[in-house]
User: What shape does this take?
Amino acid sequence: MAEVVFQRLTLIGLGLIGSSVARAAKATGAVGEVVACDADAAVLARVAELGIADRVESDPATAVTGADCVMLCVPVGALAEVAAAIAPHLAQDAVLTDVGSTKVSVIRDVGPLVPAGVHFVPGHPLAGTEFSGPDAGFATLFEGRWTLLVPPPGTEAAAVDRMTALWRRFGSMTEIMEPAHHDRVLAIVSHLPHLLAFTICGTADDLADESRQEVLRFAASGFRDFTRIAASDPTMWRDVFLNNREALLEMLARFTEDAQAMARAIRWGDSAYIEDRVLRGRKIRRSLIDLKQA
Ligand code: NAP
Assistant: This one.
């Protein structure tokens, strides 16, 4: 059996991602002990029932005491509050990490709260589903998926190496990325598609009652695929949008220009333009399948 990467991993927030990390940690043996902490007593009771952690703790200070790795798996907007509560109780040389979907805001809000002697290695597994809560998680969620690590300048290389080792044990591929670059990339590959999905479902819902019924009855794959994405957690996505404001608004502006260009092509019967755009979409889909990311 391979050695453990961390002796004790404390997870704060046991939703989809936190509970998947707990399961992966147990399944792979990458961690000696998993401690689970969540603000919601019902979530902790469920985690205990599922047996996916060695110990559950309702008090964050007690939960992080003695842990050599603390991973924050709460919505991005709650990270600073949690970090402030645990900071005085973190062990010397511990690694503090997170799984938040935005990184500039996390480094800005959490970075200054990290005590000297604690290594801060923010991260983001590019894996998830539209479901939330501890029942939604599964041990193989990260297999074959990317996890991006975004260490602030000056972070000790050994701490980054340990986080890399942990995610690789979970089956993830890892890459180190600069925070602003991370937020721009995620704005286009994840945040904008979610924005479009929420918006299109809202548009359909705003239609007169009769048309809305038709939308639901005859939802062909296009609309149906959007509704899957749009089923995601409202708190998580509110926080993502508000914490990646600049990059998301920039991508939305570019998208709006491109959508206008498509509208123009449709209005003037520019078949070549329309075909070219559809073909580009098809090529991107094929590339994803080739890269096993579809
Ligand atoms: P989730 O299923 O909604 O779970 C979040 C958990 O954190 C809930 O149990 C929540 O309790 C708890 N929580 C909220 N505020 C807390 C606090 N102040 N202290 C302790 N616990 C608190 O969310 P998730 O999908 O796992 O997302 C967690 C993080 O992963 C987010 O930062 C998100 O951006 C990131 N992420 C998500 C995905 C995805 O696809 N879902 C992918 C990659 C990264 P309540 O239920 O009581 O609020």
Notes: The longest strand covers residues 6-12.
